[in-house]
Amino acid sequence: MYCEKYQVGECHSCQWLEFSVEQQLQLKQENLSALLPSLSASVFHPAVASPQQGFRNKAKMVVSGSVEKPIFGIINSSGQPVSLTECPLYTSGFLAVFDVLKPFIARAGLTPYNIERQRGELKYLLLTQSQHTGQFMLRFVLRSEKKVEQLKNALPWLQQQLPQLVVVTANIQPVHMAILEGEQEIFFTAQQTLREEFNQVPLFIRPKSFFQTNPIVAAKLYQTAREWVRALNITSLWDLFCGVGGFGLHCAETHTKLTGIEISAPAIASATQSASELGLQNVEFQALDSTKFATNKGDIPQLVLVNPPRRGIGESLCEYLSTMQPDYILYSSCNAQTMAKDIERLAGYQVVKVQLFDMFPHTAHYEVLTLLMRDG
Asked: Where are its TM segments located (predicted)?
């Protein structure tokens, strides 16, 4: 993939652009194999590749420059603002939105936040697109509520220009630190979720809930999990760290008892909405800490599905699973290093399948799906 910003040294977010697609996948596969040295080559399935551009569904733009000439992108290591509105990772639909947002910033009087002076109101633009509908969710991250009324009054013009903006909010982040969002979310639209669909499973994205940024590879990841689980013929499963329910909803059959646990209440609301639309009756989603939920439960399902953040599932949950011994554990990880440590802690299990998904092309990061089966 050619990127002008990379070539001139303005942006190095994609650290691996010098490598070919084949080289990137080979390096990632070698890294994964090195982290799991005791496994036979036969358990590794072929890596799932990603499109090299136009795959990303979310833009996180630092807003700099002036109210008349805002710059959407990053502040690079030299402290200079770099525009990324034409970044080849995004679909063409993003550029059309950014082109209208530039004059809108002036219309709404949203002065970009100046880090050095600690002045201004608009810190970030967070833009997410549904590959299923083509519609967008736009979030303005502001320093305070000072400009909220101005923003609200200017929105009709923006919505007339961009009818594809179906969810629009302001997030208030008052802290002078590189924190992407704050606790307070103000909705300007009646619609509060962005509808997505993978493999005929509806999923609903809310402003603060985690969602995969590469929908093409994410759909393949969920479909693979569905196929692996279907072959096990199970009737009960837990989906821990479930987010908006992507894994559990893909893996649950009409007869399956599914319990999904996630600390984020908005994500649980999305998962519940999806289950209702699918007509799944034997499903329960709860907003709880996954480790605390699991370790306080007496009954054990046949399968425990985990999709933790980068830190992994941790010692306590590994110890609990090793003691309670569900028949199967399906582990999806965005950090194979912590996953490998967790697998070492899981006593009484053998790895039967591992597959790498290139969720983050042009970087060293990747997603991996691993199926573990109880010994004996």
From this structure: none
Q: Do 227 and 364 have their domain in common?
A: yes
Query: What's residue 222's pLDDT?
Result: 98
Band (pLDDT 50/70/90 cuts) for residue 100 is very high
> Cα dihedral sign for 67, 71, 74, 76?
negative
Bind-site residues: 3, 11, 14, 87, 212, 241, 262, 307
Q: Is the pLDDT of residue 245 over 90?
A: yes
Specify whether 122 is located in the same domain as 229.
Answer: no
The helix/strand/coil state of 289 is coil
Helix, strand, coil shares of the chain as percentages rounded to 5? Answer: 30, 30, 40
Per-residue pLDDT at 177: 82
User: Is 22:330 a contact under the CB 8 Å cutoff?
Assistant: no
Mean pLDDT of the chain: 95
Give the chain's length.
Answer: 376
The answer on pLDDT for 176 being more than 90 is no
Give me the CATH number covering residue 180.
2.40.50.1070
Q: How far is Cα 268 from Cα 274, in angstroms, rounded to an integer? A: 10
Q: How far, in Å, are 205, 251, 260, 263, 285 from residue 271 at the CA level?
A: 10, 13, 8, 12, 7
Distance (Å, rounded) from C-alpha 337 to C-alpha 365? Answer: 11
Per the structure, the complete domain to which residue 106 belongs is given by 58-191
In a domain, 11, yes or no: no
For residue 203, tell me if it sits in a domain. Answer: no
**Binding residue positions for S-adenosyl-L-methionine:** 212, 241, 262, 307
334 is catalytic: yes
pTM over 0.85: yes
Annotated binding site for [4Fe-4S] cluster: 3, 11, 14, 87
**HSE-up of 133 (CA within 13 Å, CB side)?**
20
Of 224, 222, 269, 267, nearest to 248 (Cα)?
222
Spatial separation of the C-alpha atoms in residues 303 and 157, rounded to whole Å? 51
